[in-house]
Amino acid sequence: MKKIFTLITMAILAMSANAQSWDFTKTQVTAEQIAADATNWEVTNDTRYTYLTATNKEALKLGTDELPDTKGLLFTGGEKKFRLDVNQRLGLNGKNLSLTIPGLKAGQTVTVKAKSANNSEARGFTVENITPVSGFFNSTSTDEQENVGTVTADGDVTITTTAGMNVFSITVEGGGNNDDPTPGGETGETEKYVAVTADGQLAPEFAAVIGEGNVATNVVDHNSIVKVETKSITLEAVASAVPKDVTSDAISTWNDVKWELKKQDDIAFNYVVGTGVCYTSWAYEEIVRDGSPTGEYRLLIGTDDNGWPNFYVTDGSHGLPISGLYYKFTPKTNGKLKMGVWMNKGNRRLFVVPSDTKQAIDYEVEGYINGQNETYTKEDGTEGSRKKYLTNDEIRALGTDPYVMGAGNNTSWVYVIVDLEAGKDYYVFSQNAQVGFQGFEFTVGANTGIVEMEAEPVKAVDLNAPAYNLAGQRVSRNTKGIVIINGKKYINR
Question: What separation in angstroms does the CA of 465 have from each of 113, 124, 135, 462, 468?
């Protein structure tokens, strides 16, 4: 019994040693203490303390000591960019202001509760060494935010403002996890892979294969394959050479295989896109001009009763792609995939296809479509326009084809959401459009535990609890589609 008690005590002490928290709604210092340090601080009406000194990954000082309210945190920003509003919040007053939590361990959980300092402008944080789990890390919102992420690797964690933000609290929990990954992960666990970081850095898997002029350095049989593996899912991203010269029965020369980093700054959507066309077979035809054969050849582009012979069709009769650009996911356990996708042609079809049936399956989609905008009030009080984040219902209302992102030939930056079964290969691709890859989230657990909202007793649902969509963005609890309340998923129809 004594041994068990000792082990429990040690575990509690270890957990306590790794936990940290800062609550800015309960100010520790007084106006008198702040006023005594006129070099670093300015007091306004006894309710606002403004830090006067510029910082470069430094602690906020009170005299020669650290400010008790922010002890252990490091700040980067100019003069008068940080302030304490008494018993309310910590203000980060501007763009590209950074707050660093040093010396964390991989696997620890970081939670930042915050809100845009401007109620009418969506703002947020970009993060370094954090894998976002929920909330708005690497995204923006006008709503009150509870941003949750896990520490990616041992070391410092940094959050940086997209514009002025109010921070209410920061907590760090967990002792880290240095154990080997367990295949399949835990039910409810969400893993995230980012192909391009918020500051425009390629993930190492892609950076390692991109050479001069974006030409792939790992090409075998005209394909460049980038492999990514987490505890619960593997990915093969395949870019291919595009045929250049064609004879009557073969492809004689090919273009280079490339991967290219691209960014859409206004919505913070960075991605990588490769070359290739998803042909399902190689067939050739002679080019005829003015009714006369030319002796020149091309890949067959004519149609038959079931579409273009060289391209995929939804019943699977033409087979799966034998060349890229496509993404093949293989989950080790049942779960839900959320994949960030850029498509250069919005009127082209995007498919998710299991290899066993070769038949396209349904998926949900949400995100941005070029030309679908909303108005908002800028910080100076004038009205502006920006891309609107569309729900699945809003996107589906734009057209009738379940595989098309929206009517019209508009670029899209969207998230494809689909249930996957363990052990199966799933291909994500378009017949004849470029598909860029932002990254993915995979949540372990079959069908993710979604229930009908109407079937849930009212008393079982906290009416004051916030609701979120699958992107981790706060929404109305009456929003159509899937909403998350207290960690449980419901569907509103």
Answer: 15, 21, 14, 5, 10
